[in-house]
């Protein structure tokens, strides 16, 4: 695999900056919202379907009587002893010896182990207080469980666990100082909290889905994807128009359209490319078919001709020519016939409109397009045209299916590579650019096409530098390059 393609597999898959993360979130906001709503709905459903649970708490006080007439020291010693015992007592509350009596007293049909799951006991640090909490779908039953368990616990401790071996009363006393009462509202489910947690979990899953989609989607969507696979400059961006096939010559048919202005912005940027050279012959190509290279070639030629310069537009796609159809010209005779010497160039070069724009159609589809395009005749033709006109724009086949575009690019000042948003993959673009670099062809830059009209990858007029001037208001380009001697 070419180095460029390897880089495309490892670069640009995950955002590495704050802007990158924001772009992923903006592109995946629908997924995030959907998952958030699903999480919210799930949380609400769980809260509605869950059985309400009521909690009741009984509070007990533990004390130890050291003697009948205790001194201050006895009281301190007894309190310390009680605090030390409380921790063990909280574990005893849910034991079978305590709960078996509760099951018998309340006539319950559960095991002590199952009942233990409904009870919990705790003691605030540094106190001799035990708080016993019972949970049940019935608020009255929850209170009954708490009170019955507290009484059973007190009996077990005093009569069994802490009963003196020599007989007599136990020194440990456990009093129920705050009996449990039925709760007026359920403790669970907490509907607002469940809904909030569901929404948060949904957002987390939505973010994960958005980032996963970004990592799995290897298509070129915006300038950041192009920059991830190449250092070539981005010459311009053209927004998507689903009806572009019906009116491909937008610069002519709708000159005030923002897409037409985008082609003029491309023209402006192209004028600064290779400014110090007399070679103004450029090939327009793409990685794969259907990226809009022919439309870009035609509109770029029209935009250049608006400034008063001489432009020759050549259909160099000898496999699937489109320019004659787009320009509304006769294409039966053209480049093929010139290259084999059947007709002179002057007889097939057709002037288009009232500008200095000349079109050379592809002509007949030959059996050997690569050989013709790489011939000395093609080199001589381009050299001659480059001396006579200001710009030569060649619409060439895509780079990956065939080698025609790369062959032509080696004879020109450089290649303008069209990359369609949402269509071409990063690996494909990297391979196409690498195919040009491998033969030392100059990559003039990349033109983004089919950019979305909304979203983080949308067409942005300020990004590509045009202000909105029409063909007669483009004062920055009223002075064309020097006129070259040759055919009028």
Polypeptide structure, described:
It is a single chain. The chain is an alpha/beta fold and 488 residues long. Helices cover 45% and strands 15% of the residues. The chain has 20 helices and twelve strands. It has helices spanning 3-10, 18-27, 29-49, 72-92, 96-106, 112-116, 139-161, 191-216, 223-229, 250-253, 258-271, 293-306, 323-327, 335-339, 345-348, 369-373, 376-388, 404-409, 426-437, 461-464; strands at residues 54-64, 119-122, 129-136, 172-178, 234-239, 281-286, 311-315, 350-352, 357-360, 391-395, 414-420, 443-451. Helix 1 runs antiparallel to helix 19. It is rod-shaped and about 130 Å long.
Q: What's the structural blueprint in terms of helices and strands?
A:
Elements: H1 3-10, H2 18-27, H3 29-49, E1 54-64, H4 72-92, H5 96-106, H6 112-116, E2 119-122, E3 129-136, H7 139-161, E4 172-178, H8 191-216, H9 223-229, E5 234-239, H10 250-253, H11 258-271, E6 281-286, H12 293-306, E7 311-315, H13 323-327, H14 335-339, H15 345-348, E8 350-352, E9 357-360, H16 369-373, H17 376-388, E10 391-395, H18 404-409, E11 414-420, H19 426-437, E12 443-451, H20 461-464
Parallel strand pairs: 5-12, 6-10, 6-11, 7-9, 7-10, 11-12
Antiparallel strand pairs: 1-3, 1-4, 2-3, 8-9
Helix pairs in contact: 1-19, 3-8, 5-7, 9-19, 11-12
């Amino acid at each position: 695999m070419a180095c460029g393609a390897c880089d495309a597999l490892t670069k640009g898959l995950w955002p590495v900056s704050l802007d990158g993360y924001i772009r992923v979130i903006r592109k995946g906001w629908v997924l995030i919202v959907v998952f958030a709503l699903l999480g919210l709905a799930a949380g609400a459903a769980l809260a509605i379907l869950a059985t309400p649970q009521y909690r009741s708490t009984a509070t007990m006080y533990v004390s130890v009587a050291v003697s009948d007439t205790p001194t201050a020291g006895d009281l301190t010693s007894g309190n310390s002893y009680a605090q030390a015992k409380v921790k063990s007592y909280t574990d005893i509350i849910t034991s079978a010896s305590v709960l078996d009596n509760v099951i018998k007293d309340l006539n319950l049909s559960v095991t002590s182990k199952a009942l233990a799951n409904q009870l919990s006991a705790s003691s605030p640090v540094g106190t001799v207080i035990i708080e016993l909490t019972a949970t049940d779908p019935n608020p009255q039953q929850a209170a009954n469980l708490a009170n019955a368990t507290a009484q059973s616990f007190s009996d077990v401790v005093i009569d069994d666990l802490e009963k003196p071996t020599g007989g007599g009363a136990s020194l440990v006393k456990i009093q129920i100082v705050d009996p449990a009462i039925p709760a007026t509202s359920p403790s669970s489910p907490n509907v607002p909290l469940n809904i909030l947690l569901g929404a948060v979990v949904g957002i987390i899953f939505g973010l994960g889905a958005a980032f996963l989609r970004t990592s799995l989607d290897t298509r070129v969507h915006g300038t950041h994807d192009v920059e991830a696979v190449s250092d070539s400059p981005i010459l311009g961006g053209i927004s998507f128009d689903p009806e572009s096939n019906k009116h491909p010559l937008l610069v002519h048919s709708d000159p005030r359209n923002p897409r037409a202005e985008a082609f003029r912005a491309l023209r402006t940027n192209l004028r600064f490319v290779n400014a110090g050279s007399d070679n103004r012959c450029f090939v327009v190509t793409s990685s794969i078919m259907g990226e809009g290279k022919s439309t870009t070639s035609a509109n770029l030629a029209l935009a250049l001709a608006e400034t008063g310069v001489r432009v020759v537009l050549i259909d160099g796609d000898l496999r699937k020519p489109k320019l004659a159809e787009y320009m509304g010209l006769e294409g039966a005779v053209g480049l093929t016939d010139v290259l084999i010497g059947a007709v002179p160039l002057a007889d097939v070069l057709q002037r288009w409109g009232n500008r200095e724009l000349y079109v050379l159609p592809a002509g007949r589809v030959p059996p050997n397009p690569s050989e013709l395009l790489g011939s000395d005749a093609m080199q001589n033709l381009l050299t001659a045209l480059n001396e006579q006109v200001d710009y030569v724009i060649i619409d060439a086949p895509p780079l990956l299916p065939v080698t025609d575009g790369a062959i032509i690019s080696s004879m020109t000042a450089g290649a303008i590579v069209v990359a369609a948003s949402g269509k071409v993959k990063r690996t494909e673009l990297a391979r196409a650019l690498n195919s040009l670099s491998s033969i030392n062809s100059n990559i003039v830059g990349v033109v983004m096409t089919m950019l979305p009209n909304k979203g983080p990858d949308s067409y942005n007029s300020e990004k590509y530098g045009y202000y909105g001037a029409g063909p007669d208001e483009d004062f920055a380009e009223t002075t064309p390059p020097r006129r070259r001697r040759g055919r009028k």
